[in-house]
Backbone:
């Protein structure tokens, strides 16, 4: 019975350790801008352009506009880097999540596997209301709580 009680006491200690790790991750809370080169581990990523556009003629945008983000990066690490448009979430000034915009005209697929020593550039498009700024959140690994935030001020 003593061993069972000792095991129960150790579980909260592990949770405290997790809380400390989360606290360490939350400490910097830096927000990046369009054009900033952000290093994540052995990879570098840049939101090189943010532009508001009209939706395509036959594919209306529910919110009215399309925000096109051009994202580029380099994999300087020893392993492949997997990147997907689902790694990114866009929010308006009120904190409402905005959806991706898909159309038939631009059939490019964003992301995939970026092998070691290679680089990429691709577009992500979002269905957005016209605004002066948006918040983009990049979560590089779904297994962690780490989030990288970008203040997106689009060119019109």
Residues:
């Amino acid at each position: 019975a003593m061993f069972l009680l000792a095991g129960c006491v150790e579980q909260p200690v592990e949770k405290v350790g997790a809380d400390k790790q989360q606290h360490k991750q939350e400490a910097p809370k830096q927000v990046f801008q369009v054009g900033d080169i952000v290093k994540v581990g052995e990879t570098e990523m840049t939101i090189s352009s943010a532009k508001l556009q009209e939706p395509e003629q036959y594919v209306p945008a529910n919110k009215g506009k399309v925000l096109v983000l051009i994202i580029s990066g380099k994999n300087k690490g020893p392993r492949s880097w997997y990147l997907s448009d689902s790694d990114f979430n866009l929010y308006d000034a009120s904190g409402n999540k905005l959806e991706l915009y898909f159309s038939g005209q631009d059939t490019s697929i964003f992301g995939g596997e970026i092998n070691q020593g290679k680089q990429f550039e691709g577009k992500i498009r979002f269905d957005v209301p016209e605004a002066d700024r948006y918040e983009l959140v990049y979560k590089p690994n779904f297994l962690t709580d780490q989030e990288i935030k970008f203040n997106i001020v689009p060119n019109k």
Remarks:
- The longest strand covers residues 43-53.
- The helical segments are 2-26.
- Confidence is low (pLDDT under 50) at residues 1-27.
- The CA atoms of residues 88 and 138 lie 5 Å apart.
